[in-house]
Amino acid sequence: MLRQKRLRLVSRSFRDVYRLLRASFPATEMLPFWRLRLNTIRSSVLLLAFYEDETFVGFVYLVNCDDGMYMPYLAVSDTCRSQGFGRKMMTQVKMIACEKPVVAIVEEPDEDARNSEQRRRRNAFFRRNGMRDTGIRTIEPDGLHCVISTDPDLAPDRVRRLILLLSGGLYRPTFACQDSDWTLHPEEMHASGRR
């Protein structure tokens, strides 16, 4: 049976999470690990490790606020993939979020990207688990990323505010909306008082 364990600042399970985080995400998409670990003292941050019996299956990192739940990281161990654990983890995330939207950012599908298959699988996984494209993009050094959510009709301003608040100001992308000319540049975020 899959069980979750909330990690706190001094948990021994951080070793497993650290290894999986480094194996699953490029350095450009990771907050410093010391920061992720330190954030676990905040009541709004949930770092959950998942286990099947005593086997480490994966982890999810969530930041909670009034407007929704931001999920910057969800990863399943290589040895546990394609066994339904990711689906079970997403089910638990949605239960934790209750009625709040869960928001994540994933790489835009791109047939020419060197990791095109990984992008395709990741996007398909999130679609199967109730996440939908909001039509909002972040412009990153390595290309466009899709903002996905359990509520695909989120207003662009709400998504922007949610991501800026929940990242603690450490993640400041340029946002663009697919359906309009709505674009917000970093200097406009600074001028508006939101970082």
TrEMBL record:
Gene3D superfamilies the record matches: 3.40.630.30
Top-rank lineage group of the source organism: Bacteria
Entry GO MF terms: acyltransferase activity, transferring groups other than amino-acyl groups
Record keywords: Transferase
PROSITE patterns linked: GNAT
InterPro entries in the cross-refs: Acyl_CoA_acyltransferase (IPR016181), GNAT_dom (IPR000182)
Domain spans labelled N-acetyltransferase: 5-153
Protein name, as recorded: Acetyltransferase (GNAT) family protein
Ranges that cross the membrane: none
